[in-house]
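ok posting inputs for the pyridoxal-5'-phosphate job
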Amino acid sequence: MGIRENLDTVKRRMEEACKSCQRETSEVKLIAVSKTKPLADLEEAYTYGCRDFGENKVQELVDKYEALPKDIRWHMIGHLQRNKVKYIVDKVFLIHSVDSLRLAQEIEKEAAKKNVTVNILVEVNVAGEESKFGSTVEEACILVSGIARLPHIRVKGLMTIAPYVTDAEENRRYFAKLKQIYVDIIHKNIDNVFMEELSMGMTGDYEVAITEGATCVRVGTGIFGERKYTVI
Ligand SMILES: *Cc1c(COP(=O)(O)O)cnc(C)c1O
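and the output
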């Protein structure tokens, strides 16, 4: 199966998931997760209309940014080290993976230098997996309030990476939990917080995430096929 057929399938399944819960198709954006994939694959997806791409490594994002059309919206979805923030603040459309005040402060510093405002999501480790980054459920709201004080950052919502499971239904409770935290934060009416995006759902569970309120799903394998990681 090629990228075109895969994209058609993912979009059709997204539409069906939206229909099943009376949501408009336009409420859910598809981010094509292109990490490890060659430029040719991204160019192909671009021809079929993809404008949102997700990457998890700074160097790879920058290289692809330089090589591809400038109307692409780049999403940083992987763990971000503070010393690499400076390379991407003026290139990314949205950073999904902000999980500490220290990282946010670094983003603030670099954004101020370049005179840009950076849109971010706060990553929450809803399932509490030890191997994962992200704020705890308990600290999420405090972290959002702290980051909201930084003038060159706009908090746009929340993100989570659910556990790897064979039955996507097992993740429903985590998506529902993230939505609940999101609604709780909206009710707190914090200045400079714009809760608009819930980034949740990947190839294995995006339909469940949509029925629990996802506004963007991050799909890699479902579009580009399996990733091959080479050990250097
Ligand atoms: C790799 C990755 C994805 C995409 O995963 P697939 O299972 O290939 O769809 C989504 N989100 C994050 C944060 C990722 O690192």
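notes: The longest helix spans residues 3-20. Residues 33, 35, 56, 77-78, 161, 202-204, 218-222 surround pyridoxal-5'-phosphate (CB under 6 Å).
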